């Protein structure tokens, strides 16, 4: 099974929570806090649910709440698989 | 929390006088204030066959649909989390702000509030997510369902998007809501808030919303749009569902004077609401009581009113009650009456907001838009229904009447007013 990449994450983020006109998701966002990217807790919940559905994994809430940047969320996905 | 900053009192202004300094309309017969107004004056209606879903299997197959996708005017970020009704409300609110000339960034932090009404909530969004829950399971339900279905969501999204942090609220009073929201916003002005963005928006044109409307038993089953909604007509047989509504900026006169050079659409001079007595009591229903109380609140006599914008339920016993109330308050055939729901259809709480917008434009321009051709009006109604062509309006004030399913009655008096000094 191939890895879940930053490109995959950006696609899911765009699909389920849209894109903030003032933020370029194609820029260097790996360590940018989600709130700076315009994604609040609900947008992240929606994103995480979509990832769980796509990959058939479960990510516990305490893991998710610690995933404050795209890099940390990708790490959480990797360790959930 | 810090108290709202009171509006500075300019000389000659009356604190709590509520001017309408911004307006936008979304209706089946006109997207935007002036297009809506032209349609009404030229007698264009927006009722047609339902296209948003397959309605062929339902007893009512007509609606007042808005053609333009409101999402085109919004940032992509807001689309996944909003129902169509909220998209309409957000697009409309942005135009109201622009039209008013008020800059939220320049206003006191708690200086502008938001008070909206809505009767159905985000039905289409809710139907989709319930379908997902039923067909696929909980993981497939959008996290945004938590608020996107909710009546209060329009107020919340408008407040968040524009940073309007003043006293805010939501009213759920059925079709009367458009007037009740404005009445509540006026209370906020009297307590010292300089301006409140208010009004009502509705859109529930999906099977779930349609079935809910059908259970009320008041929808027309006509197939031709010209027969569909005949308020006060002898052949009246129900109204037509619709989407739309109107939002407006209600601004304290002192605030508008301080800004200077504002041309208000008019003044919300009086408001009142009451409930019907319990069924079976034998006492008359509420429209006359609400109308008299609104006139008293505005300090005007029936003879000062140049036009009545009626609810026009297009249901015979409800029409008879409303006509009786109008004839009782004003005298038989004594005041011109119009019912624009014959053109727009009836978008829940948005319907009374549309009536209010039309009344404001009527006092601005001194013209009463005609009701659609409803055929013969029963002589017993004793009302002077304006049909055919617009009629010049006498005087400078109009009365708007609304009723909501379940016994709500509301009335608003609007009055013409001149520009504020520069």
From TrEMBL, chain A:
Domain Carrier, residue spans: 3-81
Source taxonomy: Bacteria, Bacillati, Actinomycetota, Actinomycetes, Kitasatosporales
Keyword field: Phosphopantetheine, Phosphoprotein
PROSITE patterns reported for this sequence: CARRIER
Record-given protein name: Acyl carrier protein
UniProt key word Phosphoprotein: yes
SMART domains, per the entry: PKS_PP (SM00823)
Pfam families: PP-binding
UniProt-listed Gene3D superfamilies: ACP-like (1.10.1200.10)
Native organism: Streptomyces sp. Tue6314
Highest taxon of the lineage: Bacteria
GO biological process: antibiotic biosynthetic process
GO molecular function: phosphopantetheine binding
TrEMBL record, chain B:
GO terms (BP aspect): fatty acid biosynthetic process
Gene3D superfamilies: 3.40.47.10
Domain Ketosynthase family 3 (KS3): start-end pairs: 15-416
Keywords: Acyltransferase, Transferase
Coiled coil: none
Pfam families per UniProt: ketoacyl-synt, Ketoacyl-synt_C
PROSITE patterns reported in the protein's UniProt record: KS3_2
Single annotated GO MF: 3-oxoacyl-[acyl-carrier-protein] synthase activity
Family per record: Belongs to the thiolase-like superfamily. Beta-ketoacyl-ACP synthases family.
Name of this chain's protein: Ketosynthase chain-length factor
Lineage, uppermost ranks: Bacteria, Bacillati, Actinomycetota, Actinomycetes, Kitasatosporales
């Amino acid at each position: 099974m191939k890895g879940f990449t930053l490109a995959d994450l950006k696609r899911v983020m765009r699909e389920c929570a849209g894109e903030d006109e003032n933020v370029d998701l194609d820029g260097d966002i790996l360590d940018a806090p989600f709130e700076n990217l315009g994604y609040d807790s609900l947008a992240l919940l929606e994103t995480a649910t979509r990832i769980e559905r796509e990959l058939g994994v479960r990510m516990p809430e305490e893991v998710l709440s610690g995933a404050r940047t795209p890099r940390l969320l990708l790490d959480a996905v990797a360790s959930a698989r | 929390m810090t108290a709202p900053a009171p509006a500075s009192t300019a000389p000659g202004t009356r604190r709590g006088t509520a001017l309408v300094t911004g307006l936008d309309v979304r209706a089946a017969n006109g997207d935007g204030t002036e297009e809506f107004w032209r349609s009404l004056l030229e007698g264009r209606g927006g009722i047609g066959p339902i296209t948003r879903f397959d309605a062929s299997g339902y007893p009512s197959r007509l609606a007042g649909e808005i053609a333009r996708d409101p999402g085109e005017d919004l940032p992509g970020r807001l689309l996944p989390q909003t129902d169509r009704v909220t998209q309409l409300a957000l697009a409309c609110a942005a135009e109201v702000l622009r039209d008013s000339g008020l800059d939220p960034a320049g206003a006191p932090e708690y200086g502008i509030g938001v008070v909206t009404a809505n009767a159905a909530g985000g039905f289409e969004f809710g139907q989709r997510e319930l379908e997902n829950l039923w067909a696929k399971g909980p993981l497939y339900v959008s996290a945004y369902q938590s608020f996107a279905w909710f009546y209060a969501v329009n107020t919340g999204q408008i407040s968040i998007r524009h940073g309007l942090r003043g006293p805010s609220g939501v009213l759920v009073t059925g079709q009367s809501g458009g007037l009740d929201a404005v009445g509540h916003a006026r209370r906020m002005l009297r307590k010292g808030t300089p301006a409140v963005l208010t009004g009502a928006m509705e859109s529930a044109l999906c099977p779930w919303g349609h079935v809910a409307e059908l259970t009320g038993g008041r929808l027309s089953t006509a197939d031709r749009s010209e027969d569909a909604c005949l308020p006060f007509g002898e052949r009246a047989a129900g109204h037509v569902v619709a989407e739309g509504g109107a939002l407006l900026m209600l601004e304290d006169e002192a605030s508008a004077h301080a800004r200077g050079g504002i041309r208000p659409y008019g003044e919300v001079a009086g408001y009142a609401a009451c409930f019907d007595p319990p069924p079976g009591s034998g006492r008359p229903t509420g429209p006359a009581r609400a109308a008299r109380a609104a006139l008293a609140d505005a300090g005007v006599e029936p003879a000062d009113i140049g036009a009545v914008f009626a609810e026009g339920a297009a249901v015979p016993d409800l029409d008879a009650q409303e006509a009786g109330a109008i004839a009782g308050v004003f005298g038989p055939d004594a005041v011109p009456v119009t019912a624009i729901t014959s053109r727009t259809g009836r978008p829940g709480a948005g319907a009374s907001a549309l009536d209010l917008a039309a009344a404001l434009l009527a006092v601005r321009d001194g013209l009463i838009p005609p009701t659609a051709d409803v055929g013969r009006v029963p002589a017993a109604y004793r009302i002077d229904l304006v049909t055919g062509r617009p009629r010049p309006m006498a005087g400078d004030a109009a009365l708007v009447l609304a009723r909501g399913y379940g016994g709500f009655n509301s009335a608003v008096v609007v009055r013409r007013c001149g520009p504020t000094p520069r």
